[in-house]
Hints:
The protein is of the alpha/beta class. It has helices at 15-18, 64-78, 89-92, 103-118, 134-140, 147-163, 184-187, 206-230, 252-275, 280-288, 299-305, 354-368, 394-413, 461-471; strands at 8-12, 45-46, 82-86, 122-128, 169-173, 197-198, 235-237, 240-241, 244-247, 311-314, 318-321, 329-330, 337-338, 372-376, 417-420, 443-445, 457-459. The strands form five sheets. Strands 7-5-4-3-1-15-14-10-8 form a nine-stranded parallel beta sheet. A two-stranded antiparallel ribbon has the order 2-6. A hairpin with a 6-residue loop joins strand 12 and strand 13 (337-338). Residues 14, 17, 130, 174-175, 241, 314, 333, 376, 380, 423, 430-432, 438 line the site of 6-O-phosphono-beta-D-galactopyranose (BGP).
Amino acid sequence: MKFPKNFLWGGATAANQYEGAWNEDGKGISIADVCTAGDAKTPRRICTAVWEGERYPSHGGTAFYYRYREDIALFAEMGFKAFRMSIAWTRIFPTGMESEPNEAGLAFYDKVFDECIAHNIMPIVTISHYEMPYALVEQFNGWADRRCIGYYMNFCRVIFERYQHKVKYWLTFNEINAGVIPVGSILALGTVKGYEGPLCQAPDDVHARYQALHHQFVASAMAVKLAHEKYPDFMMGNMSLFALMYPYSCNPEDVLLAQQKMQMMNWFCSDVQVKGEYPYYAKRYFEENNIKLSVEKEDMETIKQGTVDFYTFSYYMSNCVSTDESLGKTSGNVVSGIKNPYLHQSEWGWQIDPTGLRVALNEIYTRYKIPVMIVENGLGAEDIKEADGSIHDSYRIEYLRRHIEQMAKAIEDGVDLIGYTPWGCIDIVSASTGELRKRYGFIYVDRQDDGAGDFSRYKKDSFYWYKDVIATDGESVT
Ligand code: BGP
């Protein structure tokens, strides 16, 4: 098993879960900064402001803001070729609406990119990763308002121009298709003006969600167009959450249901972003749900012209779909479904399915025929740090090993898979539960849910394992 020499091995993070320093050097409040900590049983809550006495895990993150040099050196030690990260919009435009960017924020990312480049690590930047300025939620109900397109484009113009010689790979929106389901209205779309309460119980307005998504499609296409016109070296990608769904049985009704769910959950957004038009099946869905989008004359043309150069996605698990309502449910990333009797689950109830990754890669490549990158994958688990500082995370190695094996098979199948950046390559805050106990990293960070810990870094067993995988172009996996 050997991966191509130029394969982009690396790791992935997001600013709001990692950086901390939430109000340093002029940074504004993002939507993540008003989300409290939760756990597997207690849902995270969104607040309408930063309240005294609440615990907001993004505020401390795991301190990348202060420790980026040390962390990037550790990534380099593992042999990373690429590092996926995001730029916190609120470091550059604290409310999203300023006419001039915040120089201190821009300077921070200059230092980060320079450090990456010094170690021959290529940054892959997510422009918007669940961290829109909270001021845009308060004033406009987030992406439901068309004006967000303009503010997003101001942000893109500034960061493209500033980092054009340092960053080549850009992803326009993290897991854009989270907006297809109610939970996406918070972190992905910000259509929760005035709402305070559990993330999972925000009042759902399906119309606002699809209108907001339309605005994100236009914004994404405008960013891609700008890049293609002005920065021809840039590679522009989408980013989708791939929630693979199997029919629970061979009952044709189950098969049909799975197909319909796959269409709207997994293909709808990327069909728009890759093919440049709304797919035929959306029409029926919109009619059935009484969704009437307000679309401006040039929007469809913009979407047509702003198609992405490569397809990226997150993959953690798969689910089943059935017409039989009595079957047992399982939890998941943001999508839950019916339990699959052939699969085991993680401690957080996510069904582990390496073969599903090969299925997904083949489905994606058959449909789009453009280069594909897996920009998130991994196992969230509780780790135990021994007295000598070692962390024996054999379960994580096992999870990653089995997924990498399937990637190799997909490459053999003919899929043009160009990179792999496993999620949370260093421990960071969990997006769904706000916990630190749920760890993904190759590097352990001494930071606990009760605020204890001094942010020291420790190499887990998986660190040495992944280093070997990269050094041998994947050969050591088997
Ligand atoms: C994806 C998000 C990430 C990340 C990951 C793992 O949905 O893009 O931000 O957090 O899932 O999920 P969690 O942190 O909830 O375990």
